[in-house]
Specification:
6 helices, 321 residues, six-stranded mixed β-sheet, alpha/beta, single chain
């Protein structure tokens, strides 16, 4: 047995967090569709392959105008057509001409201004009158104004949330290189824990820790293997041996204190885990246990986080870790 947190020594919460944080495990990367990458971390930088906008477009519903007059207030324009968002347009505006345009519509050649419809009086189907002066280039989103081709969009290690997925998608990104999700197993120990209503009998309680931890990890986009284990050394040892080479993290609830049926620590040592710390200065959650298993030939490490069995202590300890 090695590491901090001897039989009668406790470490602080900050020390526990530091000991865990100083043992990051770099996982391999995979390429996958952007839409399937929520809550993943980028393994490769992303540069934009396009300008955004990719063409100059109207920022409002209104009229594209062509005029080199200093003051456009009370100026009349001849309406020559209409441009909707997504439609192709080969229109060319000349001095004194206007074209009806909607938000996102491609700005026609010759446009000097876009007038939002609120400051336009429709005189007839072919003529409009401006009721205010507007500055040149008003309400035009120009090519590359938001993002330019070749611009860095996202860095290695960036967490992909819903906003970043939308931003990358808007820039035309369809696939990303991300670190694979860690493989996590949760072992709920305790003969007293009932998985289903029909298992509930005198002396037994419903499982709260399993759903708590499963939901916690799923909230981060991780899939969790949930296993219920009896308070038997042979079972705990079996699962540690089974999971340590295939999983990145094993989380246990219960069995980490000093009772006659607390088998997590001794079984961890028996199966090759090295203690990093045990017992933290927090209440509830004092008997928090953290250990590491290393298989040098396979270049594989598995971490074991032993949480107390009390649901409140389990929740507090998971926050700590």
């Amino acid at each position: 047995m090695t590491g901090c947190g001897a039989e009668h020594g406790l470490i602080s919460v900050d020390e526990a967090i530091e000991l865990i944080s100083n043992r990051p495990k770099k996982l391999g990367s995979i390429q996958q569709p952007l839409q399937n990458s929520l809550s993943r971390c980028l393994a490769k930088e992303i540069y934009s392959e396009i300008n955004l906008p990719s063409f100059s477009q109207s920022a409002v519903d209104g009229y594209a105008l062509c005029s080199h007059v200093d003051d456009l207030n009370n100026q009349k324009f001849q309406v020559t057509g209409e441009i909707r968002a997504g439609s192709e347009s080969h229109d060319i505006l000349s001095e004194g001409q206007a074209i009806r345009i909607f938000t996102g519509g491609k700005i026609p050649e010759g446009t000097t201004h876009v007038a939002r419809q609120e400051i336009v009086e429709v005189v007839s189907a072919q003529e409009i009158l401006l009721t205010e002066h507007i500055r040149p280039k008003a309400d035009i989103r120009f090519t590359g104004e938001e993002i330019q081709q070749g611009q860095l969009l996202a860095q290695v290690g960036q967490f992909l949330n819903i906003g970043s997925l939308a931003a990358l998608s808007m820039a035309g990104v369809q696939t990303v290189d991300v670190y694979r999700a860690p493989k996590v197993a949760v072992l709920v120990t305790g003969d007293e824990v009932a998985e289903k209503a029909e298992d509930l009998a005198e002396g037994k309680i419903f499982d709260a820790n399993g759903p708590l931890l499963k939901a916690w990890f799923e909230d981060y986009g991780l899939e969790v293997e949930l296993i219920h284990v009896a308070d038997e050394a042979v079972q705990v040892t079996h699962y540690f041996n089974k999971l340590k080479d295939s999983h990145d993290v094993i989380i246990t609830t219960g069995g980490v204190s000093v009772g006659d049926y607390d088998f997590v620590r001794p079984c961890a040592f028996e199966t090759g885990f090295e203690q990093i710390f045990w017992k933290v200065k927090q209440k509830p959650g004092k008997p928090l246990f953290f250990a590491e298993y290393s298989h040098t030939e396979k270049d594989h490490r598995c971490y074991l986080l032993g949480l107390p069995g009390n649901p409140a202590a389990s929740g507090i300890s998971n926050l700590t870790a």
